[in-house]
Structure formats: C-alpha cells, structure tokens
Amino acid sequence: MVLRAPRDLRLADVARPVPGQDQVLVRVTHSGVCGTDLKIYDGGIPVNYPLIMGHEMIGEVIEGGDDRVRRGDRVLIDPVLFCGECFACLDGRTNLCPHGGLLGRDVNGGFSEYVVAPRSHVFRLHDAIESRQAPLIQVLATCLHAQRLVKILPGQSVVVLGLGVSGQLHVQLAKACGAYPIIGITRSTWKQRLAKELGADITLAAGAEGVRGVLDATDGLGANLIIESTGKVSSIGDGISMARLGGTLLLFGITTATEGALPFYQLYFKELAIVNSRASKSEDYPASIDLVAKGAVKLEPLVTHVMRLSDLGMAIGMLESGADQRMKITLEHA
Questions:
Q1: pLDDT band at residue 149, thresholds of 50, 70 and 90?
Q2: What CA–CA distance (Å, rounded) separates 121 from 23?
Q3: How far is CA 312 from CA 136, 172, 330, 334, in A?
C-alpha cells in the first residue's frame, strides 16, 4: 500500500527490498494500524513520498538470519532506528537518537508484502502468542518503556487518563506491578467496562467528575501517579489536579498543541515530577513478549477488527471517524 501524497493511498507492485549487511528480510504476515499512520496519511506528519507506512508488524524471516533469529522464525520488528554511535545511543537512550528514524515514516515500513529491518531489531515470538494480536506488542513496548521511567511500586495509586489501546495496556502493566487502586478515566462507558475487565479497580468519566472521583477514592490526597494517554492539554490539566503532593505526572500521549491553559500554581505547590516518554528501546521488546506469553497482559480484547491489507484506506477512515467500540485494527497480509 503506497502513499503517493497526502490522502493518496494505492495498492501497487514495487520491487522486493534487498537486505544489506546486518539486515533481515521479513515477509510481513500481520500489521497494526496506528494513529501515527493517520497523521502521516493526512499530511499532519511530513514525510517523503512515495512511502509505505506501517510500524507495527510481525512476519517470517526470509533472508539474513543468524544464530539468534533463523530463517522461518516468526518475529516481531522494533521499528525505531538508531545509529549506535551518537551521544544518545552511547548513553543507552537509543530512542532519542538524532540520526535515527522510524520504519513506516522515514523509510518504507510494514504495510507491504516484505520489509527490511536491522537484524538487531527482530525478536522471536513465543508460539503461544496469536499472530493477529502480536503487532500490538509494539505498542506495549512503548507503554513498558514509559512505566520503567517511573518505577511503579506495589500499593501505589495510579490514574490512567484515556482508555484507548495504550491506556488499556497501561492499566494492565500497572496491575502487574501491584498498583492499587488503578483508576481509569474516559467518557466512553464501553471503554470503562473493558478497563474493568482488564484490571482497573475504578473507572470514572473525564473532566470535573473524574477529578472529584479520584480525590474521593484516595481520601482526598490524590494519586501517586497520573498516566496521561490522550495527548490533550485539558487532560494534562486534569492530571495535575488529580495528583497528590509530591506525585508524578507521566506524559505518554503525544501532545501537538503549542499553547493551552494549565493549573500552573498546583504544579508548583504540589512539587510534581513531570516525566515524558518517547517511543521505546530494543530492550523493552523481550520483556513485553514475555508479559504477553505468560498472560500478565491480555491482547485479545484489544483487537476489535481484522481486515485485509488492501483495506488499509478503510481502516484509516475508521480511525479518522472515531468509531465507538473500536480498539486495534489488525491487517492480515495473506
């Protein structure tokens, strides 16, 4: 599926990519459709055209394997590219590499029959993990990376603002860490019910009702950790109001607004720590795969639609419309 210009997406035949040194050729079997794909599709994220989008993908190694991953292995691909030599990479922060990029944004990605990736970015999947669900592990890795930055302890109260795919994954990861209570915030009653099934102790509506509910559930103190997963300035403001003195605000949602009103005095008075996360690191993938394999994180309830690769345009339209009772859309490539 080739994006030739904003909103110009077509099924096309292209040359099969050839793996270079230390690269593998993967036949893609399943991929996930993400909000980032929508932003690239409509021109909100500038790219060079033509481009094959897609950064959530699994498949089978065809060429370029080694002792770690062999030809025929079913693998998950880490799409975050890095140089390995700059100050960020040498500091172990490969996700911040200024010379890096993303498969499906800066180079051709996974909405295709084949994709080339660095051998170091390919991870074998456990047999127990179902292929339609497996692309979601890329999203899980970003959530795990974020939570590793704040180190949730058992018994800490956690609020997750926004219960889309990433928010539902944050709920499950916080549960696995022993957080209590875990409070999910969304206006969607359907998403509230799903969050309860996946481990949330309390669910509340967004806005002033949610702020009051969090304070009531925490004896007026506020929560230890607020995970903001919507990327909306108003939600960040609510998060500040929900946090307790000395609490932490984890900004996970991608905020593109350049201005907005926030309760800055509360931010000062509470001495809140603000932590921002970006993408993930390769080390987050084996741990994410293991969490799914042992059942600590459930992906099946989050895959609500399975479509063909050729239906990518329709899938992006579903993201754009904000259709209710939709979580992750998985594309099958064969």
A1: very high
A2: 9
A3: 17, 28, 10, 14
Chain segment 31-84, per-residue pLDDT in tens: 999 999 999 999 999 999 999 999 999 999 999 988 889 999 999 999 999 999
The CA distance from 179 to 185, in Å, is 16
**Beta-bridge partner residues of 75:** 59, 124
DSSP-derived secondary structure letter, 33: E
Rg (CA), the chain: 20
Q: What is the largest CA-CA distance in the chain?
A: 62
pLDDT in tens, 254-280: 988 899 999 999 999 999 999 999 999
Residue 8: both structure tokens together? 């110009």
Kindly provide the residue ranges of all beta strands, DSSP E only, lying in 82-216, ordered along the sequence: 101-102, 114-118, 122-124, 158-161, 182-185, 202-204
- Cβ-based neighbours of 70, under 8 Å, separated by 6 or more: 61
Domains detected in the chain: 2-138+281-332 (3.90.180.10), 150-276 (3.40.50.720)
